[in-house]
Amino acid sequence: MTHRENMVAVTEDDSAGQPTAADGPGTDAAREPAAESAGAVADEGGAAETGAPAEPSGPDGPDGPDQAAAADETAADETGAASDVDEDDEEAPDAPDGEVADLEQEQEIAADYLEGLLDIVGDPDSEFDMGVEGDRALVSVVGGSLRELIGPRGEVLEALQELTRLAVHRQTGVRTRLMLDVGGYRARRRMELAALGRDAAEDVSRTGVARRLEAMTPFERKIVHDAVAAAGLRSESEGEEPNRRVVVLPAG
């Protein structure tokens, strides 16, 4: 049996017509200039045909935004905390009232999925606390034997959260940012990592030597980055998953 306690505070169609030009009647002599004109049109990216000015192929052209976005992402990854600020870890604004029902639906789907999963693994006594943080649905598993659902460094919990999100997405067709916690693990881990970030910043300030921390998940690195920034220092991430870690840098 499971008990659910809901605490709810919250949740282009580009159509581009491409004009087509119909070939009108004319002589061969008239067609030759037309062919030359069509070549000029092609050279200018079709601007003459559509009546729109030709788009440059440089940074301001059609590929510019994608190239700029990629450059921004690379720069962010090299400069520190921004590299680990994915959408799961950002503070979310309060959801409009119209989205509350959507978040409630996410909670119900997630709870049903987790209930069935816990029955399979032999832990039917767990309960669910549900709420909302900004525009993100929260589901927390409480009670029962939960250690196996967390795993070393929360690895099982992270995998379980992804499976739960997939279950929600399958039914709603909408990508979800639902956050799953088990036995208050995330809250405890936040406190531990914030303290670790503060201690590392203090150590680096005293010695002037950069300090590399243990490998962490994106969720964990984001907390450390925030703690280091609050202490007035800069940090960055290095390495590849799953061995990516925070490096706390001295001032200057």
Descriptive report:
This protein has helices at residues 28-43, 47-50, 64-79, 100-120, 147-150, 155-172, 185-207, 218-230; strands at residues 4-7, 127-133, 136-142, 179-182, 211-215, 234-238, 245-249. By secondary structure, it is an alpha/beta fold. Among the domains are: 89-183, 2-Layer Sandwich (GMP Synthetase, Chain A, domain 3); 187-249, 2-Layer Sandwich (Ribosomal Protein S8, Chain: A, domain 1). The chain has a four-stranded mixed sheet, with helices on both faces. Strands 5-7-6 form a three-stranded antiparallel sheet. The protein starts with a strand and ends with a strand. The model is unreliable at 1-83 and 85-94 (pLDDT under 50).
List the helices and strands and how they pair.
Layout: E1 4-7, H1 28-43, H2 47-50, H3 64-79, H4 100-120, E2 127-133, E3 136-142, H5 147-150, H6 155-172, E4 179-182, H7 185-207, E5 211-215, H8 218-230, E6 234-238, E7 245-249
Parallel strand pairs: 1-2, 3-4
Antiparallel strand pairs: 2-3, 5-7, 6-7
- Identify the overall geometry: elongated
Structural class: alpha/beta
- Mean of all residue-level pLDDT scores: 73
Number of strands: 7
The CATH superfamily of the domain at 89-183 is known as K homology (KH) domain
CATH class category of the domain at 89-183: Alpha Beta
Number of separate helices: 8
* SSE run: EHHHHEEHHEHEHEE
Main sheet strand line-up: 1-2-3-4
Instruction: Please bin the fraction of helical residues.
Output: 40-55%
Proportion of beta-strand residues: 5-15%
Tell me the radius of gyration: 27 Å
Measured between the Cα atoms of the first and last residue, the distance is 58 Å
Largest sheet: 4 strands, mixed
Ranges where pLDDT stays below 50 over 5 or more residues in a row are 1-83, 85-94
The CATH level-2 architecture of the domain at 89-183 is identified as 2-Layer Sandwich
CATH topology value of the domain at 89-183: GMP Synthetase, Chain A, domain 3
